[in-house]
Design brief:
The chain has 2 helices and 9 strands, in the order E-E-E-E-E-E-E-E-E-H-H. The chain is mainly beta. A hairpin with a 2-residue loop joins strand 8 and strand 9.
């Protein structure tokens, strides 16, 4: 777990410190499927700026997320660029929105912050390619490898009344 100790910083207002850090984003489940981030030690840049009322944190890194395609289940990978900012007020009695969830006992939890930012940066669907056709809803074959159509299946006569409502 990567944590950055904030107590050792000796910054005056308007000064900043840049640090090269290594992050690890633990595997996560999305839509019931496992996804991993690579490389294991993600190089990142942390910038801490001292303001008159608190600290501003900025975290920048790029990672690759790998897992199954959400349409056809083939291996897929996407590149995620993260440029995140957080603010931590120096007054501990400040409103909750002025306190960062990632600052715990004088340390900045970089791995938790990075994982949350990766999750927020993901697209709606992780696909093996932009034009992925997915799986056939009838037989389950990969439509990218074997594009095909099925003959129209006869409707069960018990559902005919509902089918007529759909057509109206």
């Amino acid at each position: 777990m990567a944590r950055f100790p904030l107590r050792r910083l000796r910054l005056r207002p308007s000064e900043e410190q840049r640090e090269a850090v290594a992050l690890s984003v633990e595997a996560f489940t999305l839509g019931g499927e496992p996804y991993t981030a690579s490389p294991d030690d993600i190089p990142a840049e942390l910038v801490v700026q001292r303001a008159s009322t608190g600290d501003v944190f900025q975290l920048r890194f790029t990672t690759t997320i790998e897992g199954p395609c959400m349409r056809c289940l083939a291996p897929a990978s996407i590149t995620v660029d993260v440029d995140a900012r957080e603010y931590q007020a120096t007054d501990p009695s400040a409103d909750d929105e002025l306190l960062s969830d990632y600052v715990v006992e004088g340390e900045l939890d970089l791995d938790a912050w990075a994982r949350d930012q990766v999750a927020l940066s993901l697209p709606d669907q992780i696909l093996c390619r932009p034009d992925c056709a997915g799986l056939c809803p009838v037989c389950g074959k990969d439509l990218n490898l074997d594009p095909h159509e099925h003959d129209e299946v006869a409707v069960d006569p018990r559902w005919a009344a509902l089918d007529a409502l759909r057509e109206e």
